[in-house]
Write a structure and sequence with these properties.
Blueprint: H1 2-7, H2 9-15, H3 19-30, H4 32-64
Helix pairs in contact: 2-3, 2-4, 3-4
Length: about 60
C-alpha cells in the first residue's frame, strides 16, 4: 500500500473509501509539481490511518480486561 501511495497517491485514498479526497489528490497529482505533495499527503494519511487502527485495537484490548 505504501508503494501505491507513492506512485498513485489518488488510488491510496480511493482504496480506503475517501472518494472526494481522491479526486482532490488526483487534481493535484495531474501537475508534475503537485505530484510530490500529493504523494507526501497520501503517505501521511496512510500512516495516520494505520496509527488510528493500532490505537483502536489497544483501546479494545484495555477495555476487555
Amino acid at each position: 500500500m505504501t508503494l501505491i501511495a507513492i506512485f498513485f497517491p489518488f488510488l491510496s485514498f480511493l482504496f480506503r473509501g475517501r472518494i472526494i479526497t481522491a479526486v482532490i489528490c488526483l487534481l493535484l497529482q495531474i501537475t508534475l509539481i503537485g505530484w510530490i505533495p500529493a504523494a507526501v499527503w497520501a503517505l501521511i494519511s496512510l500512516q495516520n490511518a494505520r496509527a488510528d487502527k493500532r490505537t483502536e485495537s489497544l483501546i479494545r484490548a484495555v477495555n476487555e480486561k
